[in-house]
Write a structure and sequence with these properties.
Helix content is 48%, strand content 7%. The chain has 150 residues and is mainly alpha-helical.
């Protein structure tokens, strides 16, 4: 989503300061390195839900004005999706570009097809772009293939 060499600062979406360690972090002591808090549990799933819903809302708000430092390619894809519910935003090319921009290649094709079908056939089919893009982004980022990718 970000330009090459630039990291998206997702700390702004956390529900409180210093909770990112509860989402999974590497602990180092001498030459020992262990991964701590990386296994899904009720606490870190609640933190992910809050942070990713805020992130999704920010992406959707970027239809009006970019909220984050996005790459030009992602902004082009988002601009096309921001015309939702126009037919041009519902093409497989636009939806697939958005899916891969956010999800990457971490999920099987069936996950994309289910996500696509849901937004084309549910009540989101005719909802405003901001509401739909927020839901689309949140659905992708809460997908286990996104959350559990190593």
């Amino acid at each position: 989503l970000a330009p090459p060499g630039v990291a998206l600062d997702l700390d702004q979406f956390m529900p409180a300061e210093d909770v990112d360690g509860l989402l999974g972090t590497w602990n180092g002591f001498g030459d020992e390195h262990t991964f701590k808090n990386g296994v899904p549990n009720p606490v870190n799933m609640m933190i992910w839900r809050v942070a990713l819903s805020r992130f999704a809302r920010s992406v959707a708000a970027s239809c009006q004005e970019p909220q984050l430092d996005f790459s030009d390619r992602f902004l082009e894809t988002l601009e096309r999706l921001c015309t939702w519910p126009a037919a041009s935003a519902k093409t497989d090319a636009v939806l697939q570009d958005y899916w891969f921009a956010v999800m990457g290649h971490n999920a099987p094709e069936a996950e994309y097809q289910a996500w696509r079908q849901f937004f084309l056939s549910s009540s989101y089919r005719d909802r405003p772009a901001a509401e739909t893009i927020e839901a689309m982004t949140f659905a992708i980022t809460m997908n286990p293939h996104f959350l559990l990718h190593r």
